[in-house]
Amino acid sequence: MYANTFPFRNTEGVFFKPNSMSKSEHDVSSKAIVASHYNSIPTVNLELRKQSAIIKLKSFNNWVKSVLIASYATRGDKILDIACGKGGDLRKYLTGGVKEVVGLGIL
Q: Pfam families attached here (predicted)?
């Protein structure tokens, strides 16, 4: 049985406990929950993004990430991007010459 004992809520709001299912059942269920979460986030065009109340903060955060990637990533690096979301930083890695990026989404 899977070791975690705290309950999760799936996309339908139903609670389940990971230890009540096998690891493979949990893996499939977890993947479905993560996929459902990211697929439910609407794609927003550039004009709507510019209307966001926190657009300046988002722009600053993106600038900081660009500077960090440019400063510390070297051509051919392999990167593990934890909490990658929908992959919004892929262009930054491409520009930085990163060879490979593995994105890990955490729900």
A: mRNA_G-N7_MeTrfase
